[in-house]
């Protein structure tokens, strides 16, 4: 379904709100009638994010091919026909071409507008005021069937405007997938539900195989990297509870590197994650999505990613998928192959 917008400007509490296609950092009106900020960060935030004068040039191992091909077009058509949002598009993932050509996509539930504004994330931010698409669980299940997926990742925006943070909606989508596709494994990369553990249980009890919640960065950098409503300890508590409540469900989290963390902090974070029973860890390079977001402090080399993976395996993670272009859901179905999901960082470096 394609929606056309009027290019007029209106006023929202004295601030111009664009009703046409918004530019990054601008406010606009969504089809559901609430306002949001394109790419999550206002332009004024750029000063706080830093202009990154003299920033390092992007190295060759971070180049990804442009999205194209029959598989890409097929997945795109299914996504459009079933009114789905994907984190692949909303978060500007560099792997969208590879994943969609392989017939996989990470579906983003509950719309494309997040109630939080993390300074690394390019998802639009606003207050959906309780809006949900009641047909979404069935639409997602049907899409999984059409794509013939054996493994699907569901993620979502944060929905702090909902009493349960969207936990019941997540559970409904997972159950709908399992009814239509009983052999399909489901991974849910969820919000933190503001640390409300009964909402974590709602999702964990829905029949999924993998429960994920991203810690994103090391303790010291949690703020300002993440929204003030998120928290390092809060994420650890969510992951701990998911594992205790359903020990057979695999738990998973992700770290972005290149935000100013030290090696000692990376290792400490790995230790904290293992202490709460996390099974799978992914490590990837932070890439600045727009000039309004946080600056890149360093580009981690492919060799360093291999080194960090060895640290993680030595600490007891079942697997650590580690590489420059790795994202939370990248090659998720291969996470337990014990081969870095088929990545060859040595070839990237060459």
Describe this structure in words.
The chain is of the alpha/beta class. It contains twelve helices and 14 strands. It has an eight-stranded mixed β-sheet with strand order 5-6-9-10-11-12-13-14. Strands 3-4-8-7 form a four-stranded mixed β-sheet, with no helix packed on it. Strands 1-2 form a two-stranded antiparallel ribbon. The relative contact order is 0.12.
* Low-confidence spans: 1-18, 46-51
Strand content: 15-25%
| CA(first)-CA(last) distance | 43 Å
List the strand order in the largest sheet: 5-6-9-10-11-12-13-14
The profile of the biggest β sheet is: 8 strands, mixed
Helix content: 25-40%
User: Roughly what is the average pLDDT, rounded to an integer?
Assistant: 85
Radius of gyration: 19 Å
**Helices and strands: which structural class?**
alpha/beta
């Amino acid at each position: 379904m394609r929606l056309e917008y009027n290019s007029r400007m209106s006023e929202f509490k004295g601030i111009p709100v664009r009703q046409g296609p918004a530019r990054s950092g601008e406010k606009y009106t969504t089809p559901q009638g609430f306002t949001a900020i394109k790419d999550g960060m206002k332009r004024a935030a750029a000063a706080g994010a830093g202009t990154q004068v003299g920033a390092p040039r992007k190295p060759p191992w971070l180049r990804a091919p442009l999205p194209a091909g029959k598989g890409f077009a097929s997945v795109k058509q299914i996504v459009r026909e079933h009114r789905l949002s994907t984190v692949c598009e909303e978060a500007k993932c560099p792997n969208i071409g590879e994943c969609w050509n392989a017939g996989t996509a990470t579906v983003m539930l509950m719309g494309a507008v997040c109630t939080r504004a993390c300074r690394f994330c390019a998802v639009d931010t606003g207050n959906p005021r309780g809006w949900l698409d009641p047909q979404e669980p069935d639409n997602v299940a049907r899409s999984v069937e059409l794509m013939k997926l054996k493994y699907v990742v569901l993620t979502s925006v944060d929905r702090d405007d909902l009493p349960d943070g969207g936990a019941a909606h997540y559970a409904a989508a997972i159950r709908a997938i399992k009814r239509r596709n009983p052999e399909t494994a489901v991974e849910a990369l969820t919000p933190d539900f503001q640390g409300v553990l009964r909402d974590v249980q709602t999702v964990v009890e829905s029949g999924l195989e993998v429960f994920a919640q991203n810690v994103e960065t090391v303790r010291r950098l949690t703020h300002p990297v993440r929204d003030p409503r998120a928290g390092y300890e809060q994420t650890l508590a969510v992951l701990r509870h998911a594992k205790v409540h359903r020990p057979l469900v695999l738990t998973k989290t992700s770290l972005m590197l290149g935000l100013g963390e030290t090696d000692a902090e990376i290792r400490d974070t790995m230790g904290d994650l293992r202490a709460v029973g996390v099974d799978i860890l992914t490590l990837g390079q932070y890439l600045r999505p727009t000039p309004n977001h946080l600056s890149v402090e360093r580009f981690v080399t492919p060799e360093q990613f291999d080194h960090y993976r060895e640290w993680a395996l030595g600490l007891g993670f079942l697997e650590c998928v580690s590489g420059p272009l790795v994202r939370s859901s990248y090659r998720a179905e291969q996470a337990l192959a014990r081969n870095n999901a088929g990545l060859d960082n040595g070839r990237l470096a060459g």
